[in-house]
Structure formats: C-alpha cells, structure tokens
# Entry
Amino acid sequence: MSAAGSTTALVVGAGIGGITAALDIANSGFPVVLVEREPSIGGHMAQLSETFPTLDCSQCIMTPRTVEVGHHDLVRLHTYSEIESVRRSDSGGFVVGIRRRAAYVDWDKCTGCGVCQEKCPFKVESAFERGIGPRKVIYTLSPQAVPNKPVLDAEHCRYLQSKWDMQAGRIPSVDKQGQPASPKCGACAKLCPTGALNWDQQDTLVEEEVGAVILATGYDLLPASRLPEYGGGELKDVVDGLAFERLLAASGPTAGKVLRPSDGAVPKHVVFVQCSGSRDPERGVPYCSKICCLYVAKQAMLYKHRVPDGEASVFYIDVRAGGKGYEEFVTRAQEEHHVRYLRGKVSRIYSQDGRLIVKGVDTLSHRAVEVQADLVVLATAIVPRVSTPAVAGLFGVAADGNGFLVSGDEEMAPVESGAEGVFLAGAALGPKDIPETVAQASGAAAKVLSLFLRRRMLETTAPAGEGMRAA
Amino acid sequence: MTEAGRAYSYFPGCTLATTAVDYDVSGRAVAAALGLELNEVPDWNCCGAAFPLSADNVMSFIAPARVLIAAERSGHDLATLCAVCFHVLKRSDAYLRTHSEAAERLNAFITEGDYTGRTRVRHLLGVVRDDVGWEAVKQRVAAPLTGLAAAPYYGCLLLRPQEEMEFDQAERPRVLQDLLRALGATPVEFPRQAECCGSTLVVSAPGANRRLSTAVVDSARLAGAAMIVTACPLCKYNLDQAQAGRPSPEQLPVAYFTQVMAAAFGLLEVAGPAFAVEAST
Amino acid sequence: MKSRIGVFVCHCGHNIASSVDVPGLAETLRRHPDVAFAADYKYMCSDPGQQLIRQAIADHRLDGVVVAACSPAMHETTFRRTAEGAGVNPYRCECANIREQVSWVHQHDQPAATAKAGDIVRSIVERVRQDECLEPLTLALTRRCVVIGGGIAGMQAALDVAGAGYPVVLIERQSALGGRMAQLSGTYLTLEGGSERLAQMIAAIERHANIQVLTEAEVTACSGYVGNFQVEVRTGRPGGAEVTPFTLDAGAIVVATGWDPYDLSRLPEVGGGLLPDVVSTLDFERMLAPGGRLARPSDGVVPRQVVFIHCAGSRDPEHGVPYCSKTCCMVVAKQAMMFRQRVPEGQAYAFYIDLRTAGKGYEEYVRRSAEEHGVLYLRGKVSAVAAENGRLRVSGADTLSDLAVDILADLVVLATPMVPADGAVPLGQTLHISTDADGFFNEAHPKLRPVETLTAGVYLAGTCQGPRDIPETLAQASGAAAKVMQLFSHAEMTQSPTVAAVVEDLCAACATCVGTCPYGARSLHPVRAVAVVNPALCQGCGACVVACPNKACFVRNWRPTQVMAMLDQVGWSGDL
# Structure
C-alpha cells in the first residue's frame, strides 16, 4: 500500500452506468473492482428491446461493452456478489468486504456450454423476464450473459432441497431396502461435461482494498401491488414497462412477438398508462420518473411495427420529451404511427368478459372515458433499489426520503457525494435515461481519475525512502 | 374477549330508524345471536349525514360530536350499521382528535360535556370480524348458504379514505368476502365492488346517479352473482331504484349483510324478502 | 507456398450449432489445401476454447487463424490477442461471422445454413492466406487539452483535466469567464446561492497552475488528428488593434461553446421585438439578479401582473425550433417564485403546453410554485399580446376549462429556447465535427457515447450539444474530462495498421483520392508526384480505393486481390 493511497477503484453496480465508469477508469490504466448483485452484468439495459430515439437494439449496442469489461485485464468482476462491510483504511481508502453468493457451480471449471440449463427439468418464474416467461432452476440471465456462467437457485432445486431435508432428518435418508437414499434429480451434475456442479459450495467472503468508490446501484420499478386500483399485479394482462420490453425483445420469451400473457393472443388494443405511481404523492411517489414518456412512445411505436392493424392509446398528464430528438420522436409516434394520446388519469383497470376495461378521464374533452383493451402497460414509477440506502450508508453516503442517493451539491457537484472518495452515477441518484447515465458515469470516472492521477504524481515525486517503503 | 368487552354503544341513525328499519332489526338480531350487547345511544341525533369538507366551519361537527360524547360516557365502543353514519362519525372523531383548537371551540358549545377523544368508532361488520371472528361466526351458522353466489358491494363511504376509515383496503376490500365464506356462500368478485353507487346524486343529478347504480348492478350480474350484499342503506336504496323498472326475473336482489347472516343463522323472520323464497321452500 | 491456417469453428452453445452442422463444417475444412488444422468447440471464446487455439498453433506450426464464430465486432480483439500470445501475427487472425450472418437468420434450414457458413469460412481462409503481417501504428501524443468555451461546462472540464495534472488551455470568446450562468439570477434550487459557486469556480480556474486562460480568443483553424492537433487561435477583438494568430499543440479538444438566446423579434405575434415590456427569460434573469432592477423596461414601474409564456418559439417546427428547450419549465417556476418573493402582492401566470419538470426535486419545485407561491398555471397557448393603455393584453386559451383567457399584464416574459452559440456550425467544420439540423453538435452515439464525437480526440460538454440544465451540464463536462484523461493515460497513440496505402508506380497524382477522403487523410506529396496517406487520419474506409482511376490505392489486408479471391468462394458449390 502506498503512502498516497490505493489507486484501485470500486464500482458498485454493473449496469450501463457502472460498466461505463469501470471502462473509463480501467482504460486509463487503473485497476477496477466491479461488484454486481445479479449473476451477470448489464443491468436493466440488458432487458430492453430497442432504445429511444434511434431504435437501436439495446443488446447489440451494449454487448461490446459488457464483453470488454468482462475480459478487461484491469477489471476484477465479482458478480452474484454484494457489499457486506466497509471500513476506512489507514491511507484514507476503503477495505471492502464482498460476499459472493454460492452459485453451486465451480465457475473455474464451467465452460458455459449450457447443457445444465437445457437439461434441468424444473422451471420457475424469471425475474429477468418480469414474469412473462420462465427460467430453469439452474440459469444464466440471457444467452449473451457476461460472465456466461450459470447459478443454481437453491430454493427451487429439487436435489439440494431433498439433500438438505435428508440431512435435517425431515425425510428419511435410507430407502425401503435400508440402502442410503440419494437426493432426487441432480440432472445438471450428471450431465455437466466438466463436473462443475458443487453441491457443497458456500458463500465466500472477499476483501478488496480500494482508493475510491463509485456507487451506481441503479433502479427498480414500483411493484404493481402498490397500485391496487390498476389490478395490483393480479391481472395477468396488466404488465409493467420492463415486462413489455421483454415482450418486444427478440431475445425475450416470445421472441419479440407481442402476445398477451393470459392466453397468448395478439393484443389488438394496447393501452399505456403513464405516471403509474409517479407524480402522485398520496398513493405512489411524489417525483416524475423522467424516462417513461419516451419509452412509452417507443413501445407504442414498436407495438405498431409488430401489429400494424393494432391500436395504441396512451394516457398521460404532461408529455415530457426534454432531450435531444425526443420531442420529434414523440411527434413521430403521434403523427406517423397514429398512437392516440389522451390527457388524463386512469382511475381504475379491471377485467370484464375477457377484456380489460380502463376507466379514466380525458381532461381535454372533459369526458369520462372507458376504454376496452387487450393489454395494458403501466409505466410504473422508477424507484431506487431497495438495498441502495443501506449499501450507500456503509460508505457514509446519505439517501433522500425516496431512497435515492444524495450528492454533496445537487446542482453544482452532481456526481460527488458528501463522503470523501465516494462518487455517484446513474439512476441511483434519481430517474434518468441512458445517455444521461452514461455521461454522468464518465463524470464520476473523471473524479476518480483526477484523484488517482494526483496520487500517482505524489508517489513519483515522493522521496525515494518513502517510495521504497511503499513498495 | 370478556363479556364486558362485548357491549357496545349502538347508534342506529336516522335512516335505520325510518326507511331502513329492516337493516336495524336484522342487525340487532344477529348481534344478539353472536352475544353482542348493543346499547342504543340515549337521546341520539342525526350524525350530520355528510362529513364537513369545509373544515373551517367547526359548527358542522356539533352533531357528530354529541354522539361521540354520549358514547364516550358509556365507556364502550360506538358501533353503527349505516355506512354513512360510520363514515361521518369515524372521520369526525379523527378530525377532533387531531385538531385540538377546533375541539376546544366545539366543546364550549356542547352542554352535555366535553369530547376528549376516547371513543372508538366501529362498524358492526368490523366488530364481527375483529371481536367475534370468522370461526365463531361459522359455528353459529345453522343453514349454510351453500351455492349462493353473492356479490359483495362496498360502495365508497365504508372504505374511503382508507387511512382514516381504518376499515379495509379501499381498492381490494376483503371483509364481506370473508363473511360470505364463513356463512357458506360463494363470494363473487366484480370490478365495481368498491365504486360509488351515485350516493346523494339521486337528489341533485338523478340521471348520473342511475347510470352509476345501473353499472354496479350490471357488473355484478355479468360476473355471475345471484344477489348483491351491502352494508349501506343508501347503496341499497340506489341499487333497488336502478332496477325498479325491470321485470322481476331480471332483478338482482340486494340484501344487507345482516340479513344474509340472519338467513344463515336460521333467523328467517328478519332475513328479509331476498330469502323469502328460500324460507318458504 | 501453401499456408498453414488453422480453422476453429464455434458452436456458441446452441446459437450456431442448432442450425449449422458445426462438426461437419470443421471436418470439410480439414481437407482444404491451405488448412493445416480444423476443430470445433462449444464456446471458442471461453478460456478452454482459447487454450485449444494456442495449443493448435504450437502443435501444427500454424501461420494464420480463422475463427468461425460471432461477429468480429464481438470477439476479434479476443482472438487476435490469443493468436498473438501463441506467436501468430494478430493481423493474420480473422473472424468468420457464422452467427449473426448465418445461424441467426437461417434457423430453419440446416443444409443451406451449413453451406453458407462453409462459403463464408472459405472466403475468410482466402483472406488470411493473403493477409500481411502488420504491426500497429504508433503516434506521438501531446498531453495538453484545449477547451473551447469558458462557461460552466468548459470550466468544469478544464478543472477536472487540470486537476489530474495535465495542462489545459481554456479559450473564451468574451472578455470574462462564466458564460451564460454569469447572467443568471441563480440556480433553481438554491436561487442566489448559485452565483457564489460560480465565482468560486472562476477563482479556482484563475489560480490553477495547469490552466492557461485565453479570453477574447477564438479558434480559427484546426489541423492534425487525435493526440496531435494543431489549433490556431486568434486573440483580440476582430477588427481591434491586436489580432495575433498563433498555434497551440494539443492532444485533445473539448468543445463547450454553449448557447445563445433565441431572437425575440422572431415572435412578433406575442410582441417579441415590438413591445418593450415583452422580454425574454434571460432578460428577466437580469432584472432578478443581484444588482438588477425589477422594473418594466418602458416606464421603470415595478410590474404587478406578470405573464410567462412557455415554449415561446420551441416545440414549434413551423415557426420556431422543433425541439423542447428542456430548462424553461423550471426557469419559469423559479422566476415566478422569485418575482412573488419580491412583489408579494403581485400575481404570476404561466401559459404552458406540458409541464416538463423531470429532474431530481423538480416536480416538487413546480408544485411549490403553484401551491405556496400562488403561480397560476394555465394549460394553453397564447395567441396574441397587444399594448393597451400602457399595459399588455394577453389573449390565450385555457385548454383545460375550454375557455378563452384574457389577462391584462404589466410584463410578459417569453420562455424562449436555447439555440446553439453563434458560430457553432463553422466551428464544427473547422474541427471536423458534425452538427444536427438545429445547429447543435452531434455526439458519436446518442445512447452510449454521449460526450464523444465521431472525430477521435474531440469531445463535447454542455448545451452546445443540446439544451440541458446546470447539473446535467456539469456531469457531462466531467464525463468529457474522463475521456481526455483516458486518452492521455496511454504512453503513445496506437492505431490499427489496416489503413490505405498507395502503389506509387501506378499513381498519377491526379488527386481524386484527396477530394474523396472524408477524413482529410490524403494529400499529394509536396515534392514527388504521388498521393500519400496520413495513416493517423485514415480510418480504412476504402473510399479512395474505389475512386482511384489507376487502381493505385489499396487498404492493407483488404487488397483487391484478396477481396476478389474471397468473392470467388461465395456461392461455390463444387467439391474440395
């Protein structure tokens, strides 16, 4: 450890913000420790179909970044891992304890061949697919996952559950003949060509010493259960924005066909409800979620591409298209793709006779409206990850009443936190779109680079004796 | 629950004393059947009939405050059956407890004594759920209503605003469903179960009122209900009126939850006309 | 001489293997005369897959590698590094794309997909057969950054780069730093607090040892390329006494030229440029700013009734600009609140189309302006503003109540859009960066490369790229600084050697290539009668190859003979 402090950076969260920051730092010659909670990197951007306003395929533009960061000599990637403890080191840096969850797969042996996923006989609902499609019990998030190594969901694994039940004496550990019984299934382990399954794998703890930190823990969507008047998540054909992305995505469960979750039919009328929980201090969150106006326009447009004879309606309060080319994009949705915009709030959504009834008001025509829909997409509010305030707290960074991270000076120092050496980027600070996240992540990287380059200068100009000690 | 805890101050309200006597009668009967002692509030007056939204007029709280004071003196919870009364009393109680200045001014006007905010306002449905419990209700059932597809209809005053009424989830209420199940009936979910029936628009805008009530009835029928169950005399009035012109086979009977309980408890004399056919067979 | 090429066919899990007969393909290629080794593997990019390649190179003395897998955009770098590690020149390792171009688009016809994959792999084998061994080009790197524009974006970028120890030259056209922010009354959230922060920032710039500030200076020319720009700067006022052009060497350029206010006289229907008491939000900022006077321009009287008109010129493709200016909704809310603080008995009205307050705390801010400061928001457009007895009659529509609205006002404030700073388009031409139809600079990619331009070494910060507010500008400016630091962190510049070259014997020095090259990489030799290539600027696009009438141009490892040989393999159906 040098006297000037470590010049390794920690980036928490490997969505597009964290990846950008990690690459900016690593490509400038400084090591990066990148920690991601999910089994693979990419965050929400990996779930998106196409991106506004250019309709670029999200996977296609992002994959080069995920691959680069995944194979970078200076990036140490800890996926399926969470920050557990933080303490300040003597040189003003941080000693960070990282817990890597047991994947039950030895990733050093695994070649990522996919046989285990293919042969696993059990399916469960996939959080990545937002409930639209299943995943196997042993799984990667997507075929393009980086790293392309599976994890095993112990809670749903027949083998592990029966093994643990036997160990705990909940079920007999000998069969009728008195022979030791073996746990059920285990197909993955039997078929793995490299013997990579490890049933006894435990969580592991790693310590990393770093000199600066970037928090880029991203966002989540407000759970639909918080919106009982819109079905509370119990109406199958009322989905949220990310679920609709999965329906549109070529890599999604329907291979990009827009099909209703309830019966697989092609919806002929899709209603989008903006501000579902946003700008609603009484029932949801008080703030504007910033990205919904554009992604709804995009989704409506993509739906019309897929189902040309279909109809798309959007309920909105204000159309907030502030961004380069955004105004023009929404205009295109309205004028070229004939997406119908209704200014007003939706009061209730319910199912009747196999269709959905969307009750609302059109504040421009002053009429109460009841629209029949085959599928409803709720642009639910952007909320911080549940764990964000706790993780930030470990680094001495505060969160606001909504759970978003607070920068030292929201206007004049947007990427600096109140804590020395800790910088912030992306939607963890508040809702924002991809370019703003990316620019901000580079901004946070600049602060880290500035710090590290100063440290390096200090080191090279330090008296020889001290340099020796440091080495 | 001790026997003493099963006594309540009971506030019937004007409607139950006049046009909805059958609600009052059935309510008292099932309460007795469940061992609940209802002591009518002495010298009660109208609850005020509408929760005053222009809160600067403190005098509007005099009517509900008198009732609250009477209940407070009895030392028991104040139970009602009328959803409107429940709404007004419950919210007035909350208002007076959180606005001490208004309470003070009000107390100066009332001769019976001061309201100090110790009355707990209850709806009898909540009493049955929380103090009696569904298990005890089930045990009291003499003739389970097996096969009865009943649509629980809440309206709005019973539930909203959720934070103040503290009764059930406004958007996904459950109490009537649970009651119906305890009585052996099959609750029928329908989208308009917590929508407004039109309420007092029946006076000011009868057309709008009829549209809303008709929509509620049709929605329940479409969902497969053979009966609508309510806890509000105004809702029942509006839903009955909406069907008034229809030929009788197309009419959906509307019953108070107390009448449905009475039917299941075998108290057919107070179960009302909706169960009359069953009573005769 | 026969080549000793190794072919490595990837299954990509099921991605390729489900529609291409991968083992069969490897088997066929094994019999190719120039193929010394062929194998297939589940995931060639995995560590065992790369080990397989390294082993085969050693065991079979391979001199070229073809990896038949995904797009080269995905893993070309990976496999070239693998080949290089085992002793094969990286430029003799190529990817044959049999995933995006074959398996993903021919999922239901295995024989046809396999045949097409064979064609592609054989054509790449042909290419590798003729590939030259190349070394990456190395170029010198000047670690100095020129920042154009002394507003908050330029200053923030300069501070970050200078803070990392690199020299910065900050060029500002005006006589003082601060840009548009110096004209503002304050920021949204802290109101007056903003100007103090700005003063601190200017002071930090002025005392920074690594920052040289040039005021009243303009960039007049730029040559060179990433790492080696020559920027010509002229100081002194044009037409003034001192005009002294000089040249700065710089490795990177940050463009932060900011915005100008929209010309009020383009809004005559609402009195812009005609009525003295119809002012812009920037004018009103000056009235609200410390030291400013809140008074009507016509008679100096303090206004009581103030009408704000949002989207005055923006979101109006027919008469104004098509885009949303993004900051005005908050600016109006701020100004209306400040006005009410100064004139408590006054009333502020705001005509809007949509309230666009998407930003942290912004929604709450506008709510506060309406609920606590009584700002009356009216959703609708204003059709006319006319003078009436020394006051202004504002006629508009409230689209929510469907009523025509008529307000007698003392002052009308037009929330006009930001437009690119004067001279942005010619500066873009000077720097070889493009502008969009509205005159804002284009980023390299709207999603993932928001602070870069398509010209390497030139970066963007702030409103010169499009309207944005202060926090977004500052974050982006730091982002541009990160790119500069990243560039400066390299010991030297490296560039791909697959650039254009000239067969001098064939060249007639006709200069067709000079005019064709979009990157300015071609010129005629100053002495000899031949065209030359500046490899630092050449992007290997091949435009000159097509244009050359004598076939004297070629791109290394894309020689016409290679391309023709590759084409011969496509659609080939005979036996090997």
